[in-house]
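re: ur question from yesterday

yeah so i grabbed the chain u mentioned. its 530 aa long if i counted rite. heres the sequnce exactly as i have it in my notes:
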Amino acid sequence: MATHTVIEIPKTTSGPADPRAPSILTTLPPEIRNRIYEYLFKRYRPVILDDEEEDFCDVFAGCTDLLLSCRQVYHEAVGILYGQNTFFVTPFLEDQMQFTCTWLSRIGSHYHLLSRVSMDADALPPATYRRYDLLPLLKFIWGYPQAKCEFAFVVSRNSGFKEQNNGAEPYDSITAADIMNTILFGLGTADVLNLKQYARYSGLISSVMVWYHDHAQCGYVEYNDSRIPRSFPHPDRGFSILDHGSKIQWKEPEQLDLVSLPGECLSTINAYARASDTDVAFDLDASEARGYRIGLSGVDTSLRLDIDQMHTRVYDEIIIRMSTQEAGTDFDDFKALQKLLEVDNFESLVNPHHCREEQCFINMVLMFKLSTPEPTADFRININKLLHIFKHDHGCLLITVQESDSSMNGTQSIKWHLIQRAVFLLLSDVLEQYPSKADQPLPQIWIDGHGTALCATYPAMATSEETTIPCSYAIDDPADVLEQYRRKIIHLDQSGMWEQCVSPLDIYSQMNNDSLASMCYCIRYYLGIN
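ran it thru and got these structure tokens back, copy pasting raw so excuse formatting
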């Protein structure tokens, strides 16, 4: 019987390779190494890019592991991979341009190795107008002027793509690539519209949108910030398409003016232009204004209208002064103030039609220049016309009653809304006592130098005697006035008097009405119930 012979196999362990020993590949001459790299990484058809990274790896399947072998091989081979291939962004991406720029950012410093990146000019479905936002790509071109990468629009086909017109008809789809390549060179490399200087600031340009019409052979470039409702820093630039897209003729730009600036810029410039280093005061006795600047409003009418829409506060305080030599007066029906309100700029300051972020303080100074000094409490002021002038919400209006010597002892400052509440209490008494006068003109409303409502007076007429209705609310405490005001509104509503006397017109109709009921309605509307 045969016996089996057992052969002993010696057991050994693998040892690390000498890190100082050169790689077999690196010992080859450079020319042979480059031929190997070209064989592995150079493709004679475009390398298609899409949002699936695996597809990119599939193109170089089995080859990319070589890049991990050593640092020298990586640096030598990656130049062939990126530098000797044309990369084509698939037309099926939803946002082709954004994906292109995302991929360029992702490859980092390898961007400088690229030779050519192509994008499909027909990625968007056919439409009357074609539109492309080139700003993301233009930022790469402007940001790396020394890079050798050439960006080109092409027209894809099932069997590849074409890059030139090659005698196509004027409206053939190939023309789209020629047009976009010409525009891209003009905006990017040549910077014919001088947009590069603005691209560094995201607040100035958020898109460079190219629009053109296939059949009209014309288009325009729109570059602005999407948050700004006007073209800035320049108006849109039109262009004509010549020689089947191989040439673009740019039209002359429109003349810029101040109105072309964004509203935020106009508002800031206007605030500086209207700023005053002195108090802004209107002396109605002398018909003089001191410290008032018209700012941009004096440039032209359109700019004035634009400035009037701005919700900005220009002045911290406006002082309006007028005087009298009588202890009991209506300041000549405040005609000097009414005349000043005929000036648009001043009227918009006193009665703004648009709610501003912050209203400026208005100090209406009424000075009593009496030959014989009298206590402020003995002054009598008919504020009938003043109530009409300041019907709007004037929470920042102050009425200052001042004696001629200008001493602080003889000065009283009263908030206008406190006077309005006291007047409302007085007028509500008139409505209850004389309902028939609801639609008649407002009576004389008298207050003293402390702002206390005294009485309402209907002057004597040919058919009637003078009628005076004293105020039954002799209240000086603002908190008490507010409480009485709230109670009076509740009483008028519950008793039905309000519905009976005040017609249900809108606030705009009531503002143009000078009746007793309309004044009550306006005061309640702007002050509310609280």
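noticed a couple things. Residues 285 and 477 are 33 Å apart (CA to CA). also DSSP finds 17 helices and 21 strands in the chain.
anyway ttyl
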